[in-house]
Design brief:
Number of helices: 10
Radius of gyration: 17 Å
Distance between the termini: 17 Å
Oligomer: single chain
Order of helices and strands: EEEHHHEHEHEHHHEHEH
């Protein structure tokens, strides 16, 4: 299997983050790590092995990205609005550096899929909702989609609002809502087992966000796994291997 690693500069920061590509052909799939993870996590936690056959068959190329959570959402010493503002730097990196590089590598003609577990699910889903022109499909595994619920504190402002899919999707209307309905397709997967309710609140958070999508008429699927399905890598591997072949 071909493997290529690059480091792409982060707008506004003196530094860069890594993107690792696995594969040589096929639909580009952008894989986010779990909270505060790295682009290399997919190799160590079994996510690459879960879809290896698809990569080797040329049905997809897997583009794994670093996170910047440690400087933003994971730093609970900061108020929510500041965490959201810092998360905007990561969004800028994705839009200005990662998406163009992936398009260049893929020939620019194939729409991307975004995937992620836990906090990575939030990143994948938010990217599809804001850049459905190039990433119209996202798969969120055991995610939550309301950053104000992540040990949030302090006064909230525009940075938090525009980082919060639960808020901006609920308030979408007119041409923007029509665009979301026409372009976006989301698959929300979550279990009912260990850690999916406490402490992560992924199960109630996923169900609540699915209700927002349903009220707004945005195309989505909600797939709730059983009481043995935990907030952990072995289950995310199975869920990814189960669903991804439909889309590549």
């Amino acid at each position: 299997m071909q493997r290529r690693s690059v480091r792409l500069g982060v707008p506004g920061l003196e530094g860069d983050l890594e993107v690792v590509r696995h594969g040589h052909w096929g639909r580009p799939v952008l894989l986010f790590p779990s909270e505060a993870g790295s682009a290399r996590d997919a190799e160590g936690n079994g996510m690459l092995d879960a879809v290896r056959a698809l990569v080797e068959a040329g049905r997809m190329s897997l583009f794994c990205v670093d996170s910047l959570d440690g400087r933003s959402w994971s730093d609970t010493s900061l108020p929510t609005e500041e965490r959201a503002r810092r998360a905007g730097t990561y969004t800028a990196w994705l839009e200005q550096a990662v998406l163009p590089w992936v398009q260049e590598q893929s020939g620019g003609s194939t729409e991307m899929v975004a995937v992620g577990p836990s906090l990575g699910a939030y990143h994948a889903v938010r990217l599809a909702l804001t850049r459905a022109d190039v990433v119209p499909l996202a798969i969120g595994l055991s995610g939550t989609y309301d950053p104000t619920a992540w040990n949030g504190w302090g006064e909230l402002g525009d940075a938090t609002y525009f980082a919060n899919p639960t808020a901006f999707v609920a308030n979408a209307h007119g041409d923007h809502l029509a665009w979301l309905r026409a372009r976006v397709s989301l698959l929300l997967v979550v279990g009912q087992g260990p850690f999916e309710v406490s402490p992560t609140r992924a199960l109630p958070g996923t169900r609540a966000f699915a209700q927002v999508l349903a009220r707004q008429g945005i195309r989505h699927e909600l797939d709730v796994w059983g009481h043995d399905s935990a907030h952990d890598w072995p289950w995310w591997q199975r869920q990814l291997a189960h669903h991804l072949p439909r889309f590549v």
